[in-house]
User: Fold HPP transmembrane region domain-containing protein from Amphritea japonica ATCC BAA-1530.
Amino acid sequence: MADLLVKMRGDATSLPAKHPVRNILVAGLGGFIAIALLAYLADSLETVLIMGSFGASCVLVFGFPDAPFSQPRNVILGHFISTLTGLTFVILFGPVWWSVALAVGVAIMLMMASRTVHPPAGSNPVIVFLLQPGWDYLFFPTLSGAVLLVLVALLYNNLSRSDNYPKYW
Assistant:
């Protein structure tokens, strides 16, 4: 037990370096543009294109676009796999506590096995259990919203930065 408490104290590593103000502003503007576009299209088309987890996806694709978690395949497939897992579990087992927990665990394993880990997508099974939508939720908002988010990230990140986005497909 004492060893566990010692480990919980951490390594006393220094905080990460501060982000340059320009990077902070560029990331915030990117997130604003992406969610504004999704919200505008959803309103205009009278369809659902936004999920709560897309806000966290914006943190990654605009704040940390070079990270593996931020690459297009991770964003799109991570959201798709996790939502599909949530829908499958809620339909097969119902909205019970152990089913949502199992859905999250299985979604994590599937993303890791397919090399498509996108941490914000880990919340999708929970969102599915709270909303209990139909299968169409897999396409609207999950797949369509994730694809639109990546399209905005492709344009915005390549216009606002000197580095290429994405690092891989």
